[in-house]
Amino acid sequence: MTKRVAIIDDDNIFQFTTKVKLEKLKLADEVLIFNDGEEVLEYLKNTKLEELPDILFLDINMPIVDGWDFLEMYKDIEKSKQDRMDIYMLSSSINPDDVKRAEDNIYVNDYITKPIRDEDLTKIFNR
Amino acid sequence: MYSLKSPLNNKGILKKLQSLFSDSSTSILDNDYSGVFKYRDIVGNLSQLVCVKDHKGIYKMANQAFCDLTGLQEVDIVGKDDLELGLFLNPDQIIAADLQVFDSGQKKHIPLEPFTDKYGSLYWFQTNKIPLFDKDENVIQILIISSDITNKIEVEQRLQHSELRYKSIFENNYSGIIVVNSELDILNKNNAFNKLIRGSDDQLGKDDLKKYISKEDKSDLTDLLAGLVTRNYEYFDLPLQLNINDHEVIDTICFVRGLFDEGGKFTEAVVTFQDVTDDLRNRTALEESEKRFRVIVENATEALMLLDYDSRKYIDMNKNAEELFGYSRDELLELTLGDLSPINQSDGSNSKTLSTDYMDQALNGKNVVYEWTIKRKDNKLIPCEVRLVKLPYERNNIVRTSVIDITERKKAERLLNLEKQKLEETNDRLVNLNDKLENQTKQLQEFAYISSHNLRAPAGNIRALLDFYHNEPIEENFKIILEKLDVVSEDLLDTINDLADVVKIKNEISQDVVKLSIAKLLDKVKDSLSQQIRDKKAKISLELNGIKYINASKTYMDSIMLNLISNALKYSKDDVVPIIEVTANQDETNFVLKVADNGTGIDLKKHGDKVFGLRKTFHRNKDSRGVGLFITKAQVEAMDGTIDIQSEIGKGTMFIIKLPKRVIK
């Protein structure tokens, strides 16, 4: 089964290294890169259900539309599309407020602190 | 002159007259009146009416008094009878009475006999009809002697009437009345007196006044009575204490009137008693109460005054009032309500209006208490507490005004307030400090998280890049990794520098406040940013509004100005000449510095709470690292100031900085 992963992060290095890692571990067939929430929301709205990513890696700190803003706007995405996608928050923040907030959000599957380890990635894809 | 005691005096003369007529009966019978006429002058001058009639009722003689009364001459009378003369209304009765005397030969006394003269006036007579005998003891004539007792009858009637009246007055009088002689024996007393001495009804008879009075009173009374007896005066009054029994004393005022006989001799005295025991007791109680009241009033700690509201005048006051107001009692009595207050009270309200209001409340029965500034005679103003109470007089509106000088209290209150204020200020400062500390703690914690985040990201990236190299250590990758590492290390350095800037602010809690020229500050910033300004052809204006200088930390102000101006340049619209306006202003407590641009603006609805956050950028702009505004806010707050933002997408942004005015030490 083809896995499509979207990385939503403004950090170019993170985008690069994560993409390389996912390909190396053969966890994803396709890795999509978005620099902030606004870009990905546009994409999700305009993409057919079957072409949508299966997993979203969502950073918190981004310009324009950050992770939290994205989650607010994600509510407006069609239910069928939401059901298709799993959202993982990936952030360097160890602020307990952020962790708590992520846990309380119904759209977020898990909160993972950067740097992300191979085991964490494998776990996500084996669920 | 009519005499009360003996209305028919000259009895001696009458006797003589009768015997005279009797003795000369023979000669009378013989019509020889010589014996009679011997006494004609005597008879003629008698005040009694004298006449002689024979058995046929024919008048034989009449004296002058008879003629005077009837208005006839003697010659008109003699030889006629009563029917002919028509002198009496009831001649038949008179004739009958005459005949009785003729028949019986007995003298007849008619005590009351009416006679009406020709004018219709009624007279009363007392008449004696005396038979005159001849030598054979036959009655041949009668001698009629009448006394005019009209006056006597009237007086008697009047007396009888008057006595009844006086008796009634005496008996029924509410005042005790007694009649005493010069020895103070009570000859008569009325019911009221009996009641006064708690006597029973059967004790109305004689008594002795001496029983009831003290020695001193007795001697006074006796002395005064002596004056009555000698008729030095006819009445007097004196206070007299009546001792009713062992424990009861009645205070009286008695009025003593002397009675004198016609000879002016003292007979007895009428004594009228007025019981003043209750009056005296009440008066004494009243005097005592008044005295007590005076003592209370004079020793009261407050100034007390009585105000007659109708006349607006003070009618009484104590010593304290004189001292408090600095006026003498006489001066105070001349003053009216408004004279003791300044025109306005300390809160600016009109004294007259306000005091009238308070007075009205008092007159409606309320106890009114209020603070009031008074004006002394020397124009000194004194804060006082005033209490008003309407006194329970029905007819007058008297208000008791009690005034206490509360200067000391006010002073204490002020001190207390000052202390309280100080404490509150200290407390506020503590709360403020606590808030600040809490805030700082929070900021520090946040800063720690942010630092951790910002350092973790590049560190993670380095790790990830190295992992990538280890996994595939080929030359191609090596080149890519080096390039990326270059970016990361740059990024890391920037982050570390930013963090260092922030830490620096946090450390420099006490900054040196100096006088800074706003124009110079801006010039310096323009120098630093000259390249960008030139590139963008930006126009920067300064409006000082008279505020040339600002007292603040130079380091911070340099940084703040640089950040705001560079921000404005950074987010300018590509196709529009950037116009940046710096405006200085002030309100009461703050300097207000505004930096406005015509740039792209920020959607504050979306990002309002994050504008001043660390690493928050809202633009996909290469230069934006999201640290400038965080530092600016930290610096403004370190100077106890505030920073706000107003922005509209497509129109521009304005930052407003308020810094408290400081005095340079």
Spell out the key features of this protein.
heterodimer; A: 127 residues; alpha/beta; Rossmann fold; five-stranded parallel β-sheet; globular; B: 665 residues; alpha+beta; Beta-Lactamase; 5 domains; six-stranded antiparallel β-sheet; five-stranded antiparallel β-sheet; 22 helices; 23 strands; disordered N terminus
Task: Walk me through this protein's architecture.
The complex is a heterodimer of chains A (127) and B (665). Chain A has 127 residues and is of the alpha/beta class. Chain A has a single domain, classed as Response regulator (Rossmann fold). Chain A has six helices and five strands; from the N terminus they run βαβαβααβαβα. Chain A has a five-stranded parallel beta sheet. In chain A, helix 1 links the parallel strand 1 and strand 2. Chain A is globular and about 35 Å long. Chain B has five domains: 140 residues, PAS domain (Beta-Lactamase); 108 residues, Beta-Lactamase, CATH 3.30.450; 106 residues, PAS domain (Beta-Lactamase), CATH 3.30.450.20; 79 residues; 151 residues, Histidine kinase-like ATPase, C-terminal domain (Heat Shock Protein 90, 2-Layer Sandwich). In chain B, the strands form five sheets. A six-stranded antiparallel beta sheet of chain B has the order 8-7-6-11-10-9, sandwiched between helices. A five-stranded antiparallel beta sheet of chain B has the order 2-1-5-4-3, sandwiched between helices. In chain B, strand 3 and strand 4 form a beta hairpin. Chain B is rod-shaped and about 220 Å long. The chains are: A alpha/beta (127), B alpha+beta (665). Chains A and B meet through helix 1 of A and helix 16 and helix 17 of B.
Could you write a compact summary of the structure shown?
With 127 residues, chain A is α/β, with parallel strands linked by helices. Chain A has helices at residues 12-24, 37-46, 67-74, 79-84, 96-104, 118-126, and strands at 4-8, 30-34, 55-58, 86-91, 108-113.
